[in-house]
Specification:
- By secondary structure, this protein is mainly α.
- Helices cover 58% and strands 0% of the residues.
- It is built from 4 helices and no strands.
- The chain has helices at 4-19, 23-30, 34-42, 50-58.
Length: 72
Amino acid sequence: MKGMNEQVRQVVRERMKEQGITHERLAELTGIQRPNVTRLLTGQSGTIPDNWQKVLDALGLKLVAQSREGQP
């Protein structure tokens, strides 16, 4: 089973593909430098701390990325 960090990255990558958004475009939309966007999407940085995963697991919760109402 994939860890939460990889699940989040995968959902983001899938959404980017659906919307035709490149790393460069995501950088423009977020104000994050393109190399940092790549680091986030490949797991080289920006991980969700293990302690948060432990808290969610203990409470039977999971982090879910979901579309905002009215947005693609």
